[in-house]
Amino acid sequence: MIFRILEEQYGAKLAAEKAAKEGVKTLAPAAAAADLRYMQLALTLGRRGLGRTGTNPAVGAVLVKDSVIIGRGWTQDGGRPHAEVEALRRAGEAARGATLYVTLEPCAHHGRSPPCADAVIAAGVTRVVSAIEDPNPLVGGQGHARLRDAGIAVEVGLCADEAARDHAGHLLRVREQRPHVVLKLAVSADDQIAAAGRKPVAITGEAARARVHLLRAQSDAILVGINTVLADDPELTCRLPGMAAQSPIRVVLDRSLRIPSDSKLVQSARQTPLWLMASEIAEAASAMRLGAAGAEVIHVADCADAPGLDLPAVLRKLSEKGVTRLLVEGGARTARAIVAGRLADEIWLLRGPAPISEGGIAALDDLPLAAITAAPEWRERSNERVGDDMLTIYDRI
């Protein structure tokens, strides 16, 4: 124990000496711990906006003065007001001389509202701790630069990995013109997702289903294949108490527009948006019928070397329409295509305790589940029990 304490103290001393030589500002342990605590709070606040802020990132912000939190904010529904403005509004005049903790660089351009960087400057904030720089070319370091030019101390990088995960949808939409894709799989003890004949069967318990519904609420859109619709007739809404309004846009891969007019999805299309991704040569009469029912038909190209729609083109189209966080819930063929095409960024694997009888449907069609669980491109982030089920989350390396 004594050796470990001495080793930590010596390591800290070396780090401080190295920082001093390189001109890097270091904080006392207590101050560093406080910074971490406030940034963690900002991240937690920002997550309140996931799935609710449109094309704007779900940012969190905390204002602190004399070790007291004087203002908190997160990006509001629809993307306005921004987190920084909301925190400043709550702090009022007390913001002068405060430190702002924010999970993404304050914007520096005029959009539907003035730049957040200007609001921070005008409020008299003297220090800004920012998790990551915004890759949006309209911002891209300009917000931090504007703050520094105004004499504000700016520090970037605290909790950068967590912030990048929370803002993954925004970052990918800007950099790659596609949403962040989360694939959710609920599999039996023997790696199946349905009984023989694609008959639906309850695999996970109530606690796991509640967790999935929360994930739906934090997503901009949820995607399934037409075979899932024909077999299950799902609603794909968020059914947590009081959260129906946070249901995501429902997206169906329906190349030939086979979805029945009396399906739950079509019947509820005027209450919760329904987008049908169809081939460019899908029948116009079917598109008109479904459009009249409230669904939106979106035409995309067919895949050049395999049957079905071009999935990268589907993702680009969804990104163009403002989707930053996409949840894919299957079925087996859609999940297989997502995994084989290396299109998922994150996988939630829920495993129930019971097997499905012989003849059931494999989770990834003809692809073994080891393509996820034993593949070098996937890294296990967490593993936890949810009720009687196990949830393992994988990140793409």
From TrEMBL:
Co-factor note (free text): Binds 1 zinc ion.
Active site, renumbered: 84 (proton donor)
Annotated residues for binding of substrate: 216, 236, 239, 329
Gene3D superfamilies: Cytidine Deaminase, domain 2, Dihydrofolate Reductase, subunit A
Membership in a protein family: In the C-terminal section; belongs to the HTP reductase family. In the N-terminal section; belongs to the cytidine and deoxycytidylate deaminase family.
Keyword match Oxidoreductase: yes
Protein name in UniProt: Riboflavin biosynthesis protein RibD
GO biological process assignments: riboflavin biosynthetic process
Superkingdom as given in the UniProt entry: Bacteria
A GO term for molecular function: 5-amino-6-(5-phosphoribosylamino)uracil reductase activity
Metabolic or biological pathway: Cofactor biosynthesis; riboflavin biosynthesis; 5-amino-6-(D-ribitylamino)uracil from GTP: step 3/4; Cofactor biosynthesis; riboflavin biosynthesis; 5-amino-6-(D-ribitylamino)uracil from GTP: step 2/4
